């Protein structure tokens, strides 16, 4: 249980706290924060901060593991699992809050399951499916879209431009394309074997 793995576990441990702030209606929440015409509930603001902290640990644990030669099988298992749990939990919470269409959450979560399955097939075949540039872009755009939804499109709410909606559509399209890209580049792993 080295430092990178502890950071990954911390990311997983933050997920229940994030969901509590998003989904539990505490009677003692103060009035929403008013920033001019923008009204932002404190629970969403706290959830956004927790999400940003959790999402930022993704790069930190991987960097430390590679830099200090601390890559472990446990880390290889936990890191992608933590990422998927974090994004899935927030997407489902946003659907429950009425801030995200359920079909977009289903598309994004389905892609994550499909690529995870492809990676498992690759492991059985003795190979590794490395993260692609599209996959990394997908992660960044998803994080930006989630943060904007949690912050009610702040600071773009003052401009009247719905950057949060644009980011959600971009996340959905890039997620779909990156999934297709993974399968095209690794189609050799999907060969049919005779029984």
Automatic annotation (TrEMBL):
Query: PROSITE patterns per the record?
Result: CDP_ALCOHOL_P_TRANSF
* Superkingdom of the organism of origin: Bacteria
Transmembrane segments annotated in the record for this chain: 12-30, 42-64, 129-151, 163-184
Q: In which pathway does it act?
A: Lipid metabolism; Phospholipid metabolism; phosphatidylglycerol biosynthesis; phosphatidylglycerol from CDP-diacylglycerol: step 1/2
The chemistry this enzyme catalyses reads: a CDP-1,2-diacyl-sn-glycerol + sn-glycerol 3-phosphate = a 1,2-diacyl-sn-glycero-3-phospho-(1'-sn-glycero-3'-phosphate) + CMP + H(+)
- Entry membrane topology: Multi-pass membrane protein
Q: Which InterPro entries match?
A: CDP-alcohol_PTase-I, CDP-OH_P_trans, CDP-OH_PTrfase_TM_dom, CDP_ALCOHOL_P_TRANSF_CS, Phosphatidylglycerol_P_synth
- Print the keywords alphabetically: Lipid biosynthesis, Lipid metabolism, Membrane, Phospholipid biosynthesis, Phospholipid metabolism, Transferase, Transmembrane, Transmembrane helix
Entry's Gene Ontology molecular function annotations: CDP-diacylglycerol-glycerol-3-phosphate 3-phosphatidyltransferase activity
The record's EC number reads 2.7.8.5
Q: Where does the record say this protein resides?
A: Membrane
Query: Main location per UniProt?
Result: membrane
Family affiliation? Belongs to the CDP-alcohol phosphatidyltransferase class-I family.
Q: What does this protein do?
A: This protein catalyzes the committed step to the synthesis of the acidic phospholipids.
Q: What is this protein called?
A: CDP-diacylglycerol--glycerol-3-phosphate 3-phosphatidyltransferase
Q: From what organism does this protein derive?
A: Paenibacillus xylanexedens
């Amino acid at each position: 249980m080295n430092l990178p793995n502890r950071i990954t576990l911390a990311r997983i441990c933050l997920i229940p706290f994030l969901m509590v702030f998003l989904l539990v209606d505490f009677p003692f929440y103060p009035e929403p924060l008013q920033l001019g015409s923008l009204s932002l509930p404190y629970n969403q603001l706290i959830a956004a901060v927790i999400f940003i902290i959790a999402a930022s640990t993704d790069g930190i644990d991987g960097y430390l593991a590679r830099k200090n030669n601390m890559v472990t099988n446990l880390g290889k298992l936990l890191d992608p699992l933590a990422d998927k749990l974090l994004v899935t939990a927030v997407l489902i919470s946003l659907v429950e809050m009425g801030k995200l269409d359920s079909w977009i959450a289903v598309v994004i979560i389905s892609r994550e399951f499909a690529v995870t399955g492809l990676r498992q097939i690759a492991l059985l075949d003795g190979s590794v499916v490395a993260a692609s540039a599209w996959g990394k872009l997908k992660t960044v755009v998803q994080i930006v879209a989630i943060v904007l939804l949690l912050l009610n499109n702040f600071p773009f709410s003052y401009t009247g431009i719905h950057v949060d909606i644009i980011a959600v559509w971009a996340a959905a399209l890039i997620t779909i394309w990156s999934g297709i890209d993974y399968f095209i580049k690794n189609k050799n792993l999907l060969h049919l074997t005779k029984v």
